[in-house]
């Protein structure tokens, strides 16, 4: 079993199995979270790890630290959400009480291109 370490996330490994499809393995201290395209792939990883180490199967993940894990078997999707981290970032930058909008302008404003420089160099 040879998994390649992610160049973006050092705790994430990917195992591209020709038989089982792609498998992602998240390693955090002494825990592994395994997700794969096929259930057989996840089982193969678990067998490979348990052959070398004393392990316990903790079943399906529902949350990890402050991350929520939502699994929809019917749609075959896995959604990760980290609301605690997002809120901490908003608070750190004083944006936790801001009202969200798709744009930062008043609603109903119509823009048109005039070809003029509307901003002075001092106001950029």
Output the keywords.
124 residues, alpha+beta, four-stranded antiparallel sheet, three-stranded antiparallel sheet, 7 strands, 28% strand, elongated
In short:
This protein is α+β, with helices and mostly antiparallel strands and 124 residues long.
Describe the structure.
The protein has helices at residues 39-52, 83-92, and strands spanning 4-5, 12-17, 21-28, 31-36, 63-64, 67-72, 77-81. By secondary structure, the protein is α+β, with helices and mostly antiparallel strands. The chain has a four-stranded antiparallel sheet, covered by helices on one side. It is elongated. The chain starts with a strand and ends in a 32-residue tail after the last helix.
Spell the H/E element sequence: EEEEHEEEH
Summarize model confidence as the mean pLDDT: 78
Total domain units: 2
* Order of strands across the main sheet: 1-2-3-4
Instruction: Kindly estimate the percentage of residues that lie in beta strands according to DSSP.
Output: 25-35%
**Category by helix and strand content:** alpha+beta
Percent range of helical residues: 10-25%
Q: How many strands, what sense, and barrel or not for the largest sheet?
A: 4 strands, antiparallel
Distance between the termini: 55 Å
Calculate Rg over CA atoms: 23 Å
SS summary, helix count: 2
Shape, principal axes of CA atoms:
elongated
Low-pLDDT residue intervals, each spanning 5 or more residues: none
Strand element count: 7
Give a topology summary.
Elements: E1 4-5, E2 12-17, E3 21-28, E4 31-36, H1 39-52, E5 63-64, E6 67-72, E7 77-81, H2 83-92
Antiparallel strand pairs: 1-2, 2-3, 3-4, 5-6, 6-7
């Amino acid at each position: 079993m040879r998994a390649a370490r992610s160049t973006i996330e050092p705790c994430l490994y990917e195992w591209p199995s020709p038989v089982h499809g792609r498998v992602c393995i998240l390693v955090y201290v002494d825990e592994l979270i395994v997700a794969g395209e096929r259930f057989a792939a996840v089982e193969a990883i678990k067998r490979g790890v348990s052959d070398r180490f004393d392990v316990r199967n903790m079943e399906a993940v529902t949350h990890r630290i402050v991350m929520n894990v939502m699994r929809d078997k019917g749609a075959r999707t896995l959604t990760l959400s980290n609301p605690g981290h997002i809120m901490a970032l908003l608070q750190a930058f004083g944006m936790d009480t801001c009202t969200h909008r798709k744009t930062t302008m008043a609603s109903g404003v119509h823009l048109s291109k005039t070809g003029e420089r509307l901003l002075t160099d001092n106001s950029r």
